Amino acid sequence: MNNKLTIYVFIGPPGSGKGSLAGLCVEQLGWKQLSTGNLCRKHISKQTEIGKQIDFAIKSGILVSDSLISTMVEHWLEKSENYGKTIIFDGYPRTVSQVKSLIKWVESNPLDIDLKVIKLSVSDDIVIDRLSHRYICKNSDCQAIYSLSEDEAFHALCIKCTGILMRRKDDEPKSIKERLVVFHQHADAVENLLLQAYFPIITINGEKPQQEVFCEFKQLICVDDK
Fold first, then answer.
1. If I label 20, which of 8, 28, 119, 188 is the partner at 20 to 30 A Cα–Cα?
2. How many angstroms separate the CA atoms of 88 and 201, rounded?
3. Nearest CA to 36 among 76, 91, 75, 95?
4. Residue 161, Cβ neighbours under 10 Å: how many?
5. From CA 31, how far away is CA 177, in angstroms rounded?
6. Sign of the C-alpha dihedral, residues 24, 25, 29, 34?
7. What are the tens digits of pLDDT across the range 16-48?
8. What is the rounded distance in angstroms from the CA atom of residue 193 to the CA atom of residue 73?
9. Distance between CA atoms of residues 117 and 41, nearest Å
């Protein structure tokens, strides 16, 4: 068994393009993506024990605990099919507590883990504009992301699975601003802790077109297409 595990942690504000960049890496480089948001929704839809706890927290109007999120991520990582792979963390870790859990997991894991951090830098104005036009596939096994006007989304179906497109409640303008406030509250502390743990951070201008961001990413990490 190949005990090597390469992990790229994508950090940046909501709407910075982490999911889009991860999708290109999956499609063109053959990597695997761990989106904590998608994983939460999948657990909820399948009513797993973790999903029930997450669903209860959301319906109760409270934040899903960092410990529960970290447990969910670690359970996913422990699957044997992840060994020998390159994995992208999209949306994890987001808080100091989650970073500490990740560091503890890396240090205690018998695998040979190479972890690097990619930071997508995007202004708040760009984030608000992007998320105001974001729609996702309702299919929990797909959840492809699209940038569409309201009229376009009304007539469109997912081109990957023909699923219905929907807009998340947290992509409404008021929710977007609230999410940005939360992001900025944690961002500096998260970055500092990652650096203290000797995980290098590579910064990319996430305001560029998607393909330009992808090309710059590949150049910075010295990787070729499959």
1. 188
2. 14
3. 91
4. 13
5. 32
6. negative
7. 999 889 989 999 999 999 988 889 988 998 999
8. 19
9. 25
pLDDT of 194 > 90? The answer is yes
Phi first, then psi: give them for residue 101, nearest 5 degrees: -65, -40
Matching residue, tokens 């939360």: 182
Each domain of the chain, given as residue ranges in start order, spans 4-122+181-221
For the chain, strand residue ranges (E) read 4-11, 32-35, 86-90, 112-121, 134-137, 145-147, 165-166, 201-205
In the chain, the N- to C-terminal Cα span, in Å, equals: 22
Residue at token pair 């951090």: 117
Give the pairing type, strands 201-205 and 112-121: parallel
Contact of 144 with 29, CB cutoff 8 Å: no
In our burial notation (b when 16+ CB lie closer than 10 A, e otherwise), range 31-70 reads bebbbbbbbbbbbbeeeeebbebbbeeeeeeeebebeebb
Rg (CA), the chain: 17
The model carries a pTM of: 0.82
CATH superfamily of 4-122+181-221: P-loop containing nucleotide triphosphate hydrolases (3.40.50.300)
